[in-house]
Amino acid sequence: MQKIVYSFILLLLTASLSAQRFSASLPDYDSYKAFKGKPLSDKFSNIESVKIIYDLKQKKIYYFNSTLIPLHFDFVTDYLGYDRGVEVFNDENYSDTEKNRDYLLGNLNHIKGTDKWVFELAASDHMPIPLIEKFYNLIVQSTFIGPRLNFYLNNPEKMEWFQQQKFKIPCVKSDYIFNEVKYQEVVSGSNIGILKQYKIKDLETIKPNADEIIVLDGTPDILPNVRGIIVNELQTPLSHLVLLGKNRKIPIMAYTKAFNDNNIKRLLSKKVELTILIDTFYIKETNKKIVHKTNSKKKTLVIDKTVTDLVNLNTIPKNGVNYIGSKAQNVAYLIAISKEIPFKTPEDAHAIPFYFYTKHIQKKSISPLIEELLAFQQKDSAIWIHQQLKKIRDAIKKEPIDPELIAKLNQSFKNAKFKNFRFRSSTNAEDLDDFNGAGLYDSKTGIMGDTIKTFEKAIKQVWASVWNEASYTERELFGIDQHNIAMGVLVQRSFPDELANGVVITKNIFRKDFPGITVNVQEGENSVVKPEKGEICEQFIASHFNDGKDDTDFDVDYTSNSNLNNNDPLLSRKEMSNLFLVSKKIETKMYRYWKKNRFNPVDIEFKIVGENRDLYIKQVRPFNE
User: Fold this and answer.
1) Distance between CA atoms of 463 and 423, rounded to whole angstroms?
2) What pTM was estimated for this model as a whole?
3) Closest C-alpha among 470, 483, 488 to residue 301
4) C-alpha distances in angstroms, 298 versus 7, 256, 376, 480, 484?
5) Where would I find the H helices in 361-482?
6) Which helix (H) or strand (E) segment is 106 a member of?
C-alpha cells in the first residue's frame, strides 16, 4: 500500500512539474526529466539539458522547461520582466565582468545512460572564474546531483584557466562526454531494406545486394550500393564516409553496440525500416515496399585534350576545369586569393593536363581492358569486375610514361626550393557540385632525382586510381559515363613535417541558422578524413561577431580534443581566429570565381607548417550537403 501511495505522490509531483514552467530546485531525477529538452546545438548526440538562470539582484535560481522555453532570453523577458532587448542582454550577460550583469546563464546537462552530470556555459560566455564557481555551488546546493557535478571546459579561455590551475571546482574536457557517445547520426533519413550483417573483410569477396541495409564491424573503404549503413565505430563529421554518404543521400549511422544489440540481431534477414535522427534511431520490421531508384540519365563528362603542356597554376587557366580538372583549377583560384589574404598555398603548383592520361591509356596493353570492362553486362559480378579493375591498374603502372612529360616536370622544378612533390588526382569526376568524390582517388609522393620514389611512378599510381574499385563503383552509381573519365594531376610541394592538418566547413553544421565554421584538426599528418582506429581529432565550432573586427570578439566551442595531443588544444586562439577570417573570405571569393548565384558553404583543407606555424590552404571545393 505504501508503494502505491508513494508512486501516486511521485506521479502528482511529476505532473505538477510538467505543468510548471520553472522551479527553484531539482530534488530528484524525475523533476529534472520534467524540464529537460534537447540542447540548442547537436554537437553531441547523447545529451539532455535543462536551462538555468541565476538572478544576481534577486538572488534567485531558476531551472526552466527547455522544450517550452528554448532560450535564456525568452525566460527573462517572459517571466522576469526584462525589457532591454536581446543585443543589450547578450552584451551584458555574457561579458567578462559582474558589473553590468543581471543574470548568470547556464545549462545543466546529463549524459544519457550514465550517472554523469555536466554544468556548461555558452562558449561565448566570458564569465569570470569567481562567478563560475559561485554558479556551480548554487547548482550543487539546489539539486539532487551534489558533488557529482562537473564543469565543462568548452572553449580555449576556460582550458587555459584550467591549465593554470585557477579553478577550485571539478572540471572536465570534451573526452568526458565524447567517450560516452555510443550513437552518432552520420546521414539522417529513412529507408526500407533487408537487414544484413557483414564483416569488413567479407566485402572483399561479397557484394551486398542493392535492397539491403547493412551492419558493418568498421568503416568501409568502398561504400557499397545499399539502402542504408550501420557501422560500429564513430566518425569524424568530415570523414570520407560522411561526405560520400551525404552525396548518396542514404541513411548512415554509427552505433558502437550494433553487433551486440538484441533488437538488431532479432531483425537480421528481415525487411526493416531504418530511421536515423540527430539524437536517436529507430529500426523495426515492416511490410512497406522497397522502392528502387535508378539513374535514367547518363552524366557526360567534359574532356579537352588540346592542352599538351604543363599548366603553371600561378596564372588562372581559362576553362581549366575542362583540361586539368576542378581540383587543380580551384588551386589556381586559391593562389590568386592568397595574394590578397594572409595565407599560403603549396609552392610550385602545376597541373598535368588530361592529354597525357588519355594518351597513356590508348596503349594496346591498356585500352582493350578498359573497353572490355565498360562493355561487360553482368554488373553484379563483383569478382570479375574486381579482377578486371586490377588488370587495368597494373597495365597503367607497367607501361612506360611519355619521357617528354618527365622532361617538362624536371625543367619546371629544376630551381625549386623543394625536392619532395605531391601528385594529386584532379579528374573531371570530383569536387563537383553534385559529385564530391571524396577519397575515391589516390595521391602519391615523388622525389626529384630519387630512384625509388620517382615522378614517373607517382604519376602512374595516380592515373591508375581512376580504376580503383571505389571510384569506378561510385561513378557507376551516379550514372557517370565511364568512357569520358580523365585524370589530370595536380603537382605541389609536399609537407613531410606538418605540425597539424585539418578540414574546415564554412558553416556551423551542428546548429542551424547560427553563424560559424566547423573545424576538424589533428596532430601532424594523421588523417582527419580517414583516422586510424581509436584516434579522435580536435573538433570545434568557431564564430566571429561584429564581422571579426575585434580579435577578442571571437568564440570557440569544442566538441572534442585530440587524444594524440593529451586532449589539449592543437591551435592557438590567434590561429583559430585567423582560420575563421581566411575561410570566410575564401568562401566569398570562390563563389565569385564559380559564378554562383547564392552562397553555399565550402570545404577547405589546411595545414600548419614550420617554426612560424604558417597557415597553408591546400584545397577548396563545394560542400555538398
Assistant:
1) 10
2) 0.85
3) 483
4) 65, 38, 17, 6, 11
5) 367-375, 382-398, 403-412, 455-464, 469-477
6) strand 103-111
Task: Give the containing element (helix H, strand E) for 29.
Answer: helix 29-35
Phi, psi of 459 (to 5 degrees): -60, -45
Find out whether 393 and 467 touch, Cβ atoms under 8 Å.
yes
pLDDT of residue 545: 59
DSSP structural state of residue 532:
P
C-beta pairs of 69-72 under 8 Å, 24+ apart in sequence: 69/21, 70/37, 70/40, 71/40, 72/103, 72/105
Q: Hey, how many other C-beta atoms are within 10 angstroms of the C-beta on 1?
A: 5
- Which of 72, 131, 65 has its CA nearest to residue 96? 131
228-231 and 212-216 strand pairing: parallel
417: amino acid identity, one letter: K
The helix (H) or strand (E) run that includes residue 226 is: none
Q: How far is CA 320 from CA 310, 312, 327, 383, in A?
A: 12, 11, 10, 37
Give dist(CA 178, CA 582) in Å, integer: 29
> Distance (Å, rounded) from C-alpha 603 to C-alpha 517?
10
CB 123 within 8 A of CB 557: yes
State how far Cα 478 lies from the chain centre. 22
Decide which of 405 and 180 is more confident.
Answer: 405
Residue 302 CA: distances (Å) to CA of 226, 324, 460, 484: 29, 11, 22, 7
d(CA 101, CA 455): 63
Q: Report d(CA 164, CA 162) in Å as an integer.
A: 5
pLDDT single digits (tens) 306-345: 999 999 999 999 999 999 999 999 999 999 999 999 899 9
Asked if 223 and 470 count as a contact pair (C-beta separation under 8 A), the reply is: yes
CB contact set of 34 (below 8 Å; sequence gap of 6+): 14, 17, 18, 20, 65
Helix (H, G, I), strand (E, B) or coil at 472: helix
Question: How far from chain centre, in Å, is Cα 196?
Answer: 27
The answer to whether 625 and 244 have CB atoms below 8 angstroms apart is no
- Rounded distance, CA 560 to CA 554, Å? 19
> SS3 of 173, please?
coil
Q: Among all chains, which residue has been given the C-alpha cell 554523469?
A: 116
The three-state DSSP-derived secondary structure of 336-389 is HHHCCCCCECCCCCEEECHHHHHHHCCCCCCHHHHHHHHHCCCCCCHHHHHHHH
CA 544 to CA 577: how far, in whole Å?
A: 8
pLDDT for position 614: 96
